[in-house]
Amino acid sequence: MDDKEILLTWRSGRREEAFNAIVQQYSEKLYWHVRALTNSHEDTDDLLQDIFVKIWGALPGFRGDSNLYTWIWRIATNETLNFLSRSNRRSTEGLTPEMEGKIDGDPWFNGTAVERELAKAMASLPKKQRLVFQMRYYEEMPYEDISKILKTSVGSLKASYHFAYKKIKEAVGNSLGDF
Q: How confident is the model over 66-106, as pLDDT tens digits?
């Protein structure tokens, strides 16, 4: 079911069916979006539950001023950032020893050593650069959609991505080649 069908189903009164379609369509994508910010499987699982509860509660007020997926991403991003602020689990600047230990000791991480270094390099970025890099590079989201989610100009997002790319390239060195 695409986003238009989901909204039509919701508006026709079949709310559980529409919500189940949202969960089915977005669970995995949201998992990886949130996971890139928390670097924790357990925190991500907890946050996903909170995010879907928030979506369920806010869906009756969705006016359709944006695409459903950008609206969902905005909720997920805000909930994740609020969680990180509340829990003081990570500073907004720099890779903390706690975060580095979390990345190195994560039993759910199944990537290569280079991918682990990339995760550390991303975690060391300032919040906005990390978000923009994640959404643009990994999620292949157009700048226009990121702009709607983060309420930032496209030009500013392009600059943030450029700076993030340069920092990651410096941190990881030549092990990634020309990613």
A: 899 999 999 999 999 899 888 765 444 556 666 666 666 66
Locate 66 and state its tokens: 């944006």
Q: Does the global pTM surpass 0.85?
A: no
Token look-up 């990339």 returns 118
> For the range 104-107, what are the long-range contacts, defined as Cβ-Cβ under 8 Å and sequence gap of 24 or more?
106/39, 106/40, 106/41
Architecture in CATH for domain 98-173 = Orthogonal Bundle (1.10)
How many whole angstroms separate alpha carbon 33 and alpha carbon 134?
7
- CATH number belonging to the domain at 1-89, selected among 3.30.360.10, 3.90.950.20, 1.10.1740.10, 2.120.10.30: 1.10.1740.10
Task: Report how far residue 118's alpha carbon sits from residue 135's, in angstroms, rounded to the nearest whole number.
Answer: 15
> How many Å apart are CA 129 and CA 160, to the nearest integer?
5
Interaxial angle between packed helices 68-87 and 143-150, expressed in degrees from 0 to 180 and rounded to the nearest 10: 50
